[in-house]
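COURSE: Structural Biology Practicum
ASSIGNMENT: Worksheet 4, Part C
STUDENT ID: 0417
INSTRUCTIONS: Below are two proteins. For each, the amino acid sequence is given first, followed by its structure token string. Answer the questions at the end about the second protein only.

PROTEIN I
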Amino acid sequence: MTVLDRLSIDPNSLLASLQSGVVVHAADTTIRYANPKALELLRLSEDQALGKSAMDPHWRFLDEIGNDLLPSQYPVNEVIRTNSSLSNKVIGIVDSSSENVTWVLLSAYPEFNAANTIEQVIVSFADYTNHKATIPFDEIVDKANDVVLVTKSSPVDGNGPEIVYANRAFSDLTGYSCDEVLGLTPRLLQGENTSPETREAIKSALQEHQSIRVDILNYTKQGDEYWLDMNIFPLTSEKGDVQFLQRSSETSQIKNICKKSWKNLPLWIRLRTF
């Protein structure tokens, strides 16, 4: 006799009253059971939910920063693939009825049969939407004064690293539209007077997944020179994927002021600095 039996508690009533969603997946990921809160969060009726698999095109899942998860990274698939539990993972759920994201704090664990293979996966999740920042990443950085670029981590040579994001400040400074540079390399901004030593230092840092800060001379789409104080650092997601974020501030005006001030110094002072 279980504790619930001794206390005369109906398990179905208990599950139905929970303010957390509970979904039971079979080993092939089809849904065997979903309690009312789970149906509410998934925006499905019971008839619609039962028999659906994790691969159903009705929905897609996002990681904590809003990137689409690959099917192999879906929570139930990850539990089945690794034979281990997940705990307190933030996941976004988007279904075909709306682009609104439901954010949940999710845990999942496998149940094994006598042959020690997974028989089913129990997934529980609570609504986390109100705790999640509602201002998207691109809206934040698009309003920044600094130039922001995000690139893939490889390849570093050839046409890499590939630009996957550029903010509005980048477009204002360089004359390139954001869409125009997607898939291209930031080296398109370098030119005849860009220091070879600086180029090599950047390349070496990217290959080693190291941060670097340099002053670099770049070129606009129209061919005009400008100086940047450029910071590049790696970003690693919880899946282990690496991207590079480049945050830069234009320093052309400061460089020009320093250059003019230097020229205006008496010759004997300029000579004594060496």
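PROTEIN II
(use this one for the questions)
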Amino acid sequence: MSKPSLRIVMLSDNQGRALVILPYNELLNLVSIWKLTHRQLQPLSEHDAAAFFSQSALDNSKGIEQLLALPVLTDSECSLTDQFDVIEPNSGRILTLNAAMLTDHLQQCKLSIGTDAIEAKQVRGSDVTVITRAVEKFTTLRIKQRLEDTLGLPTLPPTALKIIELRANPNAGIDDLVPIVLMDPSLSAQVMSWAASPYYAAPGGVNSIPHRHTTRQHPILAASYILRHPCRKTSQADAR
């Protein structure tokens, strides 16, 4: 009996399992699967795949029907006739499938890539050229991935936003700044720490925020807070 031209691969993630049918000599393109399914599916290990497909339940049609109840992805190059054979390489099991069983939950797109296509994309030239291009490609892909993973920029703390608004008001003074500083315990503590430092030390010492702000350093402190204070997402408590 000749070896089937198609192979079957089982994938899994935290949402469950899925099956992929692709040409036997093609490599599985996981990126295409992730884009199609919006899931981070990964192939089972050789041991797990061999153990699953070695089950005696797959010897009969009922077991195969239960298997095909999983989501099935097929490569667009696969020509699925009414009845066709697939092989699972780790267990060596050959399954005879019926295309009619797949029509309700079948997704089809380009899921594989051949060695010729990979070879054609390889960079030609000296070792330095190959390494340089590889690093550039990796950096570009990494930046793109980080941008895709960023759902949104974090917002500034409410205190920082109020200080920014205050700085934009030419009529604002120290009396307007002190209440804002007092609203934020972490900022108050930081201002007191700066006030006690040798650089900002005032004659006679500083024992309160209002006392501290009688000096002329409040614009510097406000700017320092905005630049140094880490951004964070606004919580429901802040919104209230």
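ANSWER KEY EXCERPT:
Q1: The two ends are 73 Å apart (CA to CA).
Q2: The CA atoms of residues 182 and 188 lie 6 Å apart.
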